[in-house]
Amino acid sequence: MEIGFRDDNGAAKSFPVTLLLPEPTTMRSIAFLSLFLCGITAAPSAPADILVRSDFPGGSAKVISVDSATQTIEIEPKTLPGRGFPCWWYMRISGLNHEQPLTVKVRSSKQPFQGQHILGGQWAIPDQIAYSSNQGQWQQTSPGKITAGHGTWMIPAGADAVEAAWGPPFLQQHADMIIRDIVQSDDNCSGFELARTRGGHAVPAIRFGPDPLQQPERPCLWIQARQHAWEAGSSWVAAGLMRWLANDSPAAVRLRERTTVFVVPIMDIDSVQDGCGGKGSIPRDHNRDWSAMPIYPEVAAAQKRLIDLADREQLKVFIDLHNPAPGDRRPFFFGPGIEQLKPQEQQRYNRWLIGAVAAIDQLDPKYHFTSYISTTEEQNRVSSTWVRNHCGNDVLSATLETAWNRPQGTAEGYQQVGEQLGEALDRFIASPPPVR
Fold first, then answer.
1. Which tens digit of pLDDT belongs to each residue from 293-313?
2. The whole model's pTM is what?
3. 165, 223, 356, 357 — which has fewest CB within 10 A?
């Protein structure tokens, strides 16, 4: 190859030039390096760190491990000695890849919660767990993989932050909101504070119908929930009942016209807000505190109101709402020993159960009995027994245990039981009393 030019006198000149090109292998190396650098630029960023929190009302989670790459977390319920069963857990998870599902693993607590007693693993491990990605609209996962003391569930992809819980949470804010909405829309309803707890929380309650002092012949019904804080489903049953009582169905209207109904959706509100189990608390839980000297102000306040109603012969029904053991798959009532009752009392309890079975889906047609309570002294400190012992023989007093470890263990499923409980109450009040 030659390059031409002109000299200082304008004469044309040229000289040969040799062009040096890279060897083929060098060319390939340059091309590979270029592609490598482009690849680094286009590679996806490392997964964000997942954050698990439980520092909010009702929260409970001890984080065991977090794997952001596989989007897997493992926790166990927090154990607060003396504050009841360590089975409730509730957490908020952020920093998720919305295109990837979240794997939630839970192991049961092995820490003693009452003396040296360790809770059985099945209490913290439901077949299906609750999750929400849109601020309170709770859904249920598919059944998880359950082994002894461990559970694994998959939350579908679609959100960068979710809440996950043992079951759908029901906190003081839920009770306040439902009661407020009902009272604002119905002049015949009145919200009130049952008591102020040892922790300083107000215990919200609602009355449907007129003040019984103004109508001394009017029968009164008392329904309360959540003496054990982990039993969130019982509060959802109460919510379903409250909403049913506020609607315009013929049965609800008829019951409101004939009675005054009191509903307390959360009794152990301190433990609920603190994320504790409540049941088995030291020195005793709410449903073992119905004594001559209760330690919980809300129990004392309920006792006083019930005694006042009974003294005026207005109290006709007392129902305490609970959730049972993991193996109980259908709702049932704890009741008294029927054979120990007088004939007219037997008729009352049988009449109630017949109407309840007709109204409540899958309800066991037989009463259950608390055989696990070992002494008469302890049994007498259970709320339903206390009412039977102190409020007269004309009162129906029972405990509704709504099964949670089943597909119906959702906010909607629990509230349907509450609606059906309302239907049963209407049947009971509308049917004739036993002949004396």
1. 999 999 999 999 999 999 999
2. 0.88
3. 357
